[in-house]
From TrEMBL:
It is an enzyme of class 2 (transferase). Its EC number is 2.8.1.7. Belongs to the class-V pyridoxal-phosphate-dependent aminotransferase family. NifS/IscS subfamily. Residues 3-363 form the Aminotransferase class V domain. GO terms for molecular function: cysteine desulfurase activity; iron-sulfur cluster binding; metal ion binding. Its cofactor is pyridoxal 5'-phosphate. It comes from the Bacteria. PANTHER family: CYSTEINE DESULFURASE ISCS 2-RELATED, CYSTEINE DESULFURYLASE FAMILY MEMBER. This is Cysteine desulfurase NifS.
Length: 383
């Protein structure tokens, strides 16, 4: 039996989502920009999908741009806003624990002459509202703050930041939130939080890879990053990934419709996993905060190399991650490093990330496997 606990990296597609996509690959395959009947039919479906997506997040259709996923949405939001609002200033605020899709994008802008303030997290992996407030300047054109951190599950104070910015008189600062790890886990609407731009990725919520959205509040000045045939209201050209979009929207509806039950279930499983690990394994440090998102549990097993543990667990069909999937091939996690973990704690860190597809028997069996492999490793090292 495979025990997949790497759902922050990606999730398994729901069966009905795969069926929906198949329909658009095999039957409704026309280009939505084509003016014949087949094209018009697909265009109608795309319009419907945009409306359904907008309804889910309390937006209007014009505010939804379909993209290829989180990385593209992050790039589009950051580059698009700063390039279109050059006169507003050249200062950006972000955090030092963002996903590389944000960090590497602002780093490139830094090389082009933008000034970037990186807010540091506390030991729980949370940046403070006060540090945001004191970093804000007249010339801050963009604040890019993630909602839920992908490595620890820590939740950033985006509601406070968004409301503060939207109430601030004469503020020219756009507020962008990477909600890739919070969509379907935290019940919120961008407009209620004062968010101007927000990215969501399909493959983190049991939808297909290669699809996502950027929510762009009406009135936001943004420059297109991909130019061409003018699709997606001219903001993101390129023939739309219809099977991906249709599957994504179906998965998003399931995520939002079942959010309460899903979060309760995943939280219960995470608490169980944490309890089993704390009960049975000595010398550990839990790196995820108590009040973090429901699906991520990051734990350091001291004296154990996370990478070795990951590979020994995979031999027993247990799949976890060190750091995030995108950065796990590099050494160490920038997020845990920023939280002030010691080299030993960094070295032994494992991220367990759960979904509604996990169950109690998997958690119990998975925790037993972790215990077995940690004990074996420590025995060998002691010899
Ligand atoms: C917080 C966060 N932002 C952005 C991304 C990138 O999303 P995608 O894989 O859809 O490009 C990820 C993926 O791990 C993520 O966790």
């Amino acid at each position: 039996m495979d025990i997949y606990m790497d759902n922050s990296a990606t999730t398994k597609v729901y069966d009905e989502v795969a069926d929906e996509m198949f329909l658009y690959l095999k039957t409704h395959y026309a280009n939505p920009s084509s003016v014949h009947r087949m094209g018009l039919e697909v265009e109608k479906k795309l319009k419907g999908a945009r409306k359904r997506m907008a309804n889910l997040i309390g937006a209007n259709e014009k505010e939804i741009v379909f993209t290829s996923g989180g990385t593209e949405s992050d790039n589009m939001a950051i580059r698009g806003v700063v390039k279109a609002n050059k006169r507003a200033g050249k200062h950006i605020i972000t955090t030092s624990i963002e996903h590389p899709a944000v960090l590497n994008t602002v780093k490139e802008l830094e090389e082009e002459g933008y000034e970037v303030t990186y807010l540091k997290p506390d030991e729980n992996g949370v940046v403070s509202f006060d540090s945001f407030k004191s970093s804000l300047r007249e010339d801050t054109v963009l604040a890019a703050i993630m909602h839920v951190n992908n490595e620890t599950g820590s939740v950033q104070p985006i509601e406070k930041i968004g409301k503060y910015l939207s109430r601030k008189k004469g503020s020219k600062t756009y507020f962008f939130v990477d909600a890739v790890q919070s969509f379907g886990k935290i019940d919120f609407k961008p407009s209620k939080y004062g968010i101007d731009l927000m990215s969501v990725s399909s493959h983190k919520i049991h939808g297909p890879k290669g699809a996502g959205i950027l929510y762009i509040k009406e009135g936001t000045k943004i420059r297109p990053m991909i130019t061409g045939g003018g699709q997606e209201m001219g903001i993101r050209s390129g023939t739309e990934n219809i099977p991906g979009i249709m599957g994504f929207v179906m998965a998003a509806e399931r995520a939002v419709d079942n959010i309460k039950g899903n979060v309760e279930k995943i939280s219960r499983l995470k608490d169980m996993l944490r309890f089993e690990i704390e009960k049975n394994i000595d010398d550990i440090k839990v790196n995820s905060p108590e009040d973090g998102a429901c699906h991520v549990l990051n734990v350091s097993f001291l004296g154990v190399r996370g990478e070795v543990l990951l590979h020994s667990l995979e031999q027993d069909g247990v799949y976890v991650s060190t750091g995030s999937a995108c950065s796990s091939k590099k050494k160490g996690s920038h997020v845990l490093l920023e939280m002030g973990l010691s080299p030993k704690e960094l070295d032994g860190a494992i991220r367990f990330s759960l979904s509604g597809m996990n169950d109690e028997s998997q958690i119990l069996a998975g925790a037993k496997m972790v215990q077995k492999h940690v004990e074996e490793y420590r025995k060998i090292v002691k010899r």
